[in-house]
Amino acid sequence: MDTRRAWWIWGTGVFAYLVAITQRTSFGVAGLHATERFDATAAALSTFTVVQLLVYAGLQIPVGLMVDRFGPRFMITGGAVLMCAGQVQLAFASSIPEGLAGRLLVGAGDAMTFVSVLRLLPIWFSGKRIPLLTQLTGQFGQLGQLLSVIPFVALLNLQGWQTAFLSVAALSVLSVILAASVIRNFPSGVEQDLPPTLRQTGVSLAQAWKQPGTQLGLWSHFTVQFAGNVFILTWGFPFLVSGQGLEPAAASALMTVFVAVALCSGPFFGRWVARHPLRRSSLVLLIIAATAAVWLAVLLYPGRAPFWLLVVLVLVLAVGGPGSMIAFDFARTFNPVSRAGTATGIVNVGGFVSALLVMFCVGVALDALYASGYSQGELYSLDSFRIALSVQFLFLGGGTAAILFIRRRVRANMAAQGQNVPPLRVALARQRRLRKQRRDRRRDASAGRH
């Protein structure tokens, strides 16, 4: 474990995930172009991303089972092939059904990538490295958003729709070549278990789902991740440009800030989770509260929000990405390696189900407000966005309630095994005492030397 070859394999997997994120987010920044190309309404435009994420979410559990059976190499390579085909289809699409077919393939290929890359970690690395590597996998992958926001948008504006989408399709060809030639499912010389039978696969799925720790990961992912995904994939750019009146260049800059903050905060979360494994859910709840507070401030602000408040919004939403990765640590620590892919797939369903539901609801609300005359002939008016985006609070509230309920079950199970989680105020007081004792010892040692 932790060999040079392991790092090469992980790096190749991360590159494949980066390319998958590029394919996933490319349509979001092309939303205004897609409206013109397909003559699409807001609901029809949101359907593109909803279909993509619906396929992604629906395949997570099957993909988790398949990666446990066939291995990460096959799944990562196959995913890249599907995404390449989907982007080529979208490049030549001239109607909504043709475009949807392309996004369906992209969603299927995307679904096969992340879970498979995470499945490599417990095979090639020691347990102490996995929380940080999980975060780094997610955050390095988010660099794919930068490829969407900067070079892809530039190609889209300068060379047009077809050239831009064919260019990102070429990245998946590179992923196929690298994944097939570099990634290996197991270190050489390691005895491999026989692939599970169909019956064993069903038992593994049932056991992973019944585990309260898996359910805690599912609801954590459901509640933390969707706000950032809704913003970066579909409604963020139209909200900033049409709703808040920013120039497209300024909106793109904020999207770049989103990616940069997600990258910088990921290692912090990884180290924090490794040091405080009993406080992971508290950090999840803190992120949810911050997300609700900043959206409330932006949506209730009279008139267009000041630029500094929009920056704060982007900063908080960006933290949600690495924050949602905590959910996978629940799946890892409460399940054996043999069903790690299955548990990870179950958890990964959560954030994408909530994201696609919110995206679709926002699109339907915008169309309804436009048809009723409320938006005064402007589909993406600020007042309409205020109402449509408020649907997020229902998901934040419902998810928080589920997390609190399941956390009690998890902690009850831990207490039955002799592992009690003290109240947060008690734990903080203990940490303060320990810090004070360390300072006193250092001071005494310093005084003794003099």
The N- to C-terminal Cα distance equals: 46 Å
CATH superfamily of the largest domain: MFS general substrate transporter like domains
Radius of gyration, in angstroms, nearest whole number: 23 Å
CATH class of the largest domain: Mainly Alpha
User: Which regions contain 5 or more consecutive residues with pLDDT less than 50?
Assistant: none
In N-to-C order, the SSE pattern is HHHHHHHHHHHHHHHHHHH
Major beta-sheet overview: none
Q: Please indicate the percent range of residues in DSSP E strands (runs of 2 or more).
A: under 5%
Number of strands: 0
Subcellular location: Cell membrane; Lysosome membrane
Keywords: Lysosome, Membrane, Transmembrane, Transmembrane helix, Transport
Membrane topology: Multi-pass membrane protein
GO molecular function, one term: transmembrane transporter activity
Keywords:
83% helix, mainly alpha, 450 residues, 2 domains, 19 helices, Growth Hormone, Chain: A
Question: If you had to describe this structure to a student in words, what would you say it looks like?
Answer:
- This protein has 450 residues and is an all-alpha fold.
- The protein has two domains: 397 residues, MFS general substrate transporter like domains (Growth Hormone, Chain: A, Up-down Bundle), CATH 1.20.1250; 28 residues.
- The protein is built from 19 helices and no strands.
- α1 packs antiparallel against α5.
- The longest helix has 33 residues.
